[in-house]
Design goal:
- By secondary structure, the chain is α+β, with helices and mostly antiparallel strands.
- The protein has one domain.
- The strands form two sheets. Strands 1-3 form a two-stranded antiparallel sheet. The chain has a two-stranded antiparallel sheet with strand order 2-4.
- The termini are far apart.
């Protein structure tokens, strides 16, 4: 059985595993399914593909999600996860 966690914890887990910041639009204390992944998605996965296969299923279609890149912008859905992750790095 899947453990339920708060939206706030879900956002933190996604960042910990995927190295990508998301914002789930909902009460931070609402409960959702655990993220459930230990390894990050492949770098050539699109943002849209990642949302559809990993994020949306845990939210049961009840919440909208914004993905935020390193500059604070919302990336295009065809952006690869590797490019998105790279936007957070500061040299």
């Amino acid at each position: 059985m899947t453990q339920n966690i708060s939206i706030s914890t879900f956002e933190d887990l996604v960042f910990e595993v995927e190295q990508v910041r998301i914002v789930v639009r909902g009460n931070p204390r609402d409960l959702v399914q655990d993220y459930g992944y230990e390894r990050k998605a492949a770098g050539n996965t699109s943002v849209t593909g990642w949302l559809e296969t990993r994020v949306y299923p845990a939210l049961d279609g009840k919440y909208s999600v914004a993905v935020v890149d390193g500059s604070g912008a919302i990336p295009h859905g065809r952006t690869h996860m590797s490019k998105l992750r790279g936007s957070y790095l500061v040299e």
